[in-house]
Design a protein that fits this description.
Blueprint: H1 3-32, E1 40-44, E2 48-52, E3 59-62, E4 68-73, E5 77-82, E6 86-93, E7 99-108, E8 115-120, E9 123-129, E10 133-135, H2 143-163
Parallel strand pairs: 1-7
Antiparallel strand pairs: 2-5, 3-6, 4-5, 6-7, 8-9, 9-10
């Protein structure tokens, strides 16, 4: 091996090492970046899903609370509840405001296997049929049906609370 070929081999190793260090510097922010909105949490309307938060979360922000709501639980658990159809996002921040994680939340319609939808012209009524059919209010039902069913449920709840023994 001549001195010239040894020098060339040394130069190639140095060039390779420089390229690797440069690539590591460029890729470091990508690997250290928090999870992005590509991570999707799917939940049915009026149902809940549980997920884990990363350590050191101080604040959780929901893009549209009409679509989904979250409750932080002890132990780093997060309960996501579907409130309305659609997609929104959730961002978890630490105390300095740094983004620790970001997720899309997709709220889907209820499980169709036990829901029956009745159309009376343009008016819609939903029933839960598991095993017997009972009124069930769902977003998109006609206002009259929705209001009547909600009034019955509220009346029942207030009567149950007033009949409960005082503690």
């Amino acid at each position: 091996m001549t001195a010239r070929s040894a020098y060339r081999g040394h130069w190639s190793a140095w060039a390779l090492m420089s390229a690797l260090v440069g690539a590591a510097i460029l890729l470091a922010p990508i690997s250290a970046a928090p999870a992005r909105a590509a991570d999707v949490i799917k939940v049915e309307l009026d149902r809940a899903a549980i997920t884990r938060l990363p350590p050191h979360v101080a604040t959780v922000v929901i893009g549209n609370p009409l679509i989904a709501d979250v409750t932080v639980q002890p132990g780093g658990f997060l309960v996501v509840t579907g409130k309305g159809y659609g997609t929104t996002n959730m961002i978890a921040l630490d105390r300095t405001g740094a983004v620790l994680s970001e997720h899309n939340i997709e709220v889907l319609g209820p499980n169709a296997s036990d829901i029956v939808v009745v159309y009376r012209g343009v008016n819609r009524e939903s029933y839960s049929c598991a095993p017997e059919c009972e009124r069930r209010i769902t977003l998109g039902d006609s206002a009259e049906y929705f209001d009547q069913t909600m009034a019955q449920a509220s009346n029942r709840a207030s009567r149950a609370q007033s009949a409960a023994p005082a503690k």
